[in-house]
Every structure is written in C-alpha cells, then in structure tokens.
Write a structure and sequence with these properties.
39% strand; single chain; 0% helix; Immunoglobulin-like; mainly beta; 210 residues; 13 strands
C-alpha cells in the first residue's frame, strides 16, 4: 500500500470527501481473511497518508446491518470491541522485530481501542498502552455505508521521523455483520490463508511512504 505525504495535519471528522483524501491511493478488499471467499456486500476501501507528525488511515465500508455496542462511550476505550463491527489497523514500524506491532480499532459509532502487541510475551497484548490516536466516523444509513478516519501519532509508536521510501509492515482488517465469528464476515487487506487469528504478523503486507 502506498502512503502519500501531506504537508499539513488535519483533524479527523469522518468525511472522506474532503480534498485531501483525493490524493490517497485507495485500495479495495472484500475477501475473507482466511480463505478465498469474497463478500461484495462488505466491500471495503482503505487509503493512507502521512505527515511529519502522524499517519492517517481512511476507510469506506459497505454494510447490510450494523452490529455495534449501543451502550458505548466513545470517550473511553472499549475492551473486546472486535466482537462487533469494526475496522482495524495493525502496524509495525520496526519490521526487524516482526512480533512487535500496534493495533488500532474503530467501530461505526466511533467506539475505539488501541493495543500494543508483542507476540513474544504472554499475554501478548497490552491494553494499558495509550497512543492518543484520534478518530471519527460517519454512518450513511441511506446508502448503507460508513466511513472512518484515524490519525495516529508517530511518537506513540516510538517513531521520530519518516523518510520517503521507508517501508513498514501493515495489515488492515474489518469485522462486519450480525452474529458471532461463525456467522459474520471477517475481511483483511493482506490474506492469512488457512490461519485462525488476525495476529499472524508473517502475513502482513507492506506500507510504503512516498
């Protein structure tokens, strides 16, 4: 995935029609994370941008029915958010340490969670880690689409500077639909063939900063 440079930061508001996102290289995924099954009814588009301070991700998501925590408070982190509809970014700014990366999740109603992951530890996720990332969503119930913007501070991931041409490890996921994992749709940008967990960093793709 190409991540294009922007000279000025902006506040996420969930609006992907603003001009800045027209410069992004949008990619689509609609395939099951573990198999060759496709879900055109859950077509998902993602793009990334970067500045000297932040990495941004934008998601456009088709949906049939929303599955969200109705009682959530977007000012507080929501544990087990992944059990409902969500978009997720798993990003590793240090590819030499493949087991260590960061997870960012946002639901259609802007509930969120961020985690530091280290697969060499048990437990491997640290919910006390706080990135300070910003995020916003919008739901268009007429067209059955929802959008999300994430702004992730570089310093939260221990990064002080990015140079054009830098490559990190990345995967993007989406959980969509009603029911448990046996019923709803689990999608990924970079597939994990025959796997059984999103946390398979050897199957992450690459994000290139240009």
């Amino acid at each position: 995935m190409d991540c294009k440079f922007i000279s000025e930061d902006f506040e996420p508001n969930g609006d992907l029609l603003k001009k800045i996102w027209s410069t992004g290289s949008w990619v689509m995924f609609d395939h099951d994370v573990y198999s060759a099954i496709t879900y055109p009814e859950a077509e998902t588009w993602v793009a990334a941008l970067w500045s000297n301070r932040n990495v941004y991700f934008g998601f456009r998501c088709k949906y049939s029915a929303l599955n969200i925590f109705e009682d959530g408070d977007p000012t507080k982190e929501r544990w087990e958010l992944w059990k409902r509809d969500v978009v997720e970014v798993f990003i590793n700014p240090d590819p030499d340490h493949i087991a260590h990366y960061f997870e960012f999740e946002v639901a259609p109603n802007n509930l969120w969670i961020d985690l530091e992951i280290d697969k060499t530890k048990e437990p491997f996720c640290d919910p006390t880690w706080a990135s300070g990332f910003r995020h916003a969503t919008r739901i268009d119930r007429t067209s059955h689409r929802w959008t999300c913007e994430m702004q992730i501070p570089l310093t939260s991931m221990g990064v002080t500077e990015i140079f054009s041409g830098t490559e990190w490890r990345l995967n993007c996921f989406r959980a969509d639909g009603l029911g448990d994992n046996s019923q709803r749709r689990l999608l990924s940008w970079s597939a994990i063939p025959g796997g059984d967990t999103f946390h398979t960093p050897t199957c992450f793709g690459l994000i290139r900063f240009i």
